[in-house]
UniProtKB/TrEMBL annotation:
<dbReference type="InterPro" id="IPR001789">
    <property type="entry name" value="Sig_transdc_resp-reg_receiver"/>
</dbReference>
<protein>
    <submittedName>
        <fullName>DNA-binding response regulator, LytR/AlgR family</fullName>
    </submittedName>
</protein>
<feature type="domain" description="Response regulatory">
    <location>
        <begin position="5"/>
        <end position="116"/>
    </location>
</feature>
<dbReference type="GO" id="GO:0003677">
    <property type="term" value="F:DNA binding"/>
</dbReference>
<dbReference type="Pfam" id="PF04397">
    <property type="entry name" value="LytTR"/>
</dbReference>
<keyword id="KW-0238">DNA-binding</keyword>
<dbReference type="GO" id="GO:0000156">
    <property type="term" value="F:phosphorelay response regulator activity"/>
</dbReference>
<dbReference type="InterPro" id="IPR011006">
    <property type="entry name" value="CheY-like_superfamily"/>
</dbReference>
<dbReference type="Pfam" id="PF00072">
    <property type="entry name" value="Response_reg"/>
</dbReference>
<dbReference type="InterPro" id="IPR046947">
    <property type="entry name" value="LytR-like"/>
</dbReference>
<feature type="modified residue" description="4-aspartylphosphate">
    <location>
        <position position="56"/>
    </location>
</feature>
<feature type="domain" description="HTH LytTR-type">
    <location>
        <begin position="147"/>
        <end position="230"/>
    </location>
</feature>
<dbReference type="InterPro" id="IPR007492">
    <property type="entry name" value="LytTR_DNA-bd_dom"/>
</dbReference>
<keyword id="KW-0597">Phosphoprotein</keyword>
Length: 231
């Protein structure tokens, strides 16, 4: 069984105690720290790996939103807040779920099951040999689907961006899309296909994948937001 290392961060003692009790009921969750504010959480994240954050929004010193905005590679996040007006901002920061206080165990369980499913599916996808061979000018090159950040169409060629660089092959963007999993890849623009697993945030008409900012066209935006933010 995959165990998720989680941290609770909330400035309210009763809220921390309630979440801790819920976490202890589930074998696939391992509580590694309980923090009273985002400053403590920041220190924890520097010291050990964390898979899941239960994060309050309004806290002393630094808000939960400010902390998330400053993380380059955040773990999965479930926001737990008494204020529903932060929900949209939370989803723009790619949180997995947004729980309103007081949180029932049933609602808590639904949220953590969603995280568990995402983590285990992602792990399975990257451990199984799922790849494609693409023809470059000099050789046939293997590209793993889980390594693809995005694909850019350039007339009769596509450029496949991975963490280690670009692979360019002679094909159309529409033909290349047919070779990709519809559950992982989605077209966001006439010139771009993205890997949903690598999306870090959405800001207006821009989608962020690491250091890359990609445009979302008007024709694709509704579908893109529906797929990325579906509950």
């Amino acid at each position: 069984m995959v165990k998720l290392r989680c941290v609770i961060t909330d400035d309210e003692p009763m809220a921390r105690k309630g979440l801790q009790g819920y976490v202890e009921k589930l074998d696939f969750l391992e509580l590694v720290a309980v923090c009273e504010d985002a400053v403590q959480l920041s220190n924890v994240l520097k010291q050990q790996p964390v898979d899941l954050l239960f994060l309050d929004i309004e806290m002393p010193y630094i808000s939960g939103v400010e902390l998330l905005s400053g993380l380059t590679d955040p773990p999965k996040v479930i926001i737990v807040s008494a204020y529903e007006q932060y929900a949209l901002k939370g989803y723009e920061l790619d949180v997995t779920d947004y729980l309103l206080k007081p949180v029932s165990f049933e609602r808590f369980l639904k949220a953590v099951n969603k995280v568990y499913d995402q983590v285990t599916k992602s792990a399975a996808a990257c451990t199984e040999p799922q790849f494609i061979f693409v023809k470059t000018t000099q050789k046939m090159e293997k590209v793993f689907f889980c390594d693809i950040l995005f694909v850019e169409g350039m007339e009769n060629y596509v450029s496949i961006q991975t963490p280690s660089g670009k692979v360019v092959t002679h094909t159309s963007l529409s033909d290349f899309l047919k070779k990709l999993s519809p559950y992982k890849f989605i077209q966001i623009h006439k010139s771009y296909i993205i890997n949903q697993d690598h999306v870090s945030s959405v800001e207006g008409n821009l989608l962020n994948i690491g250091k890359y900012k990609l445009p979302i066209s008007r024709n694709y935006k509704a579908k893109v937001l529906d797929v990325l933010f579906k509950t």
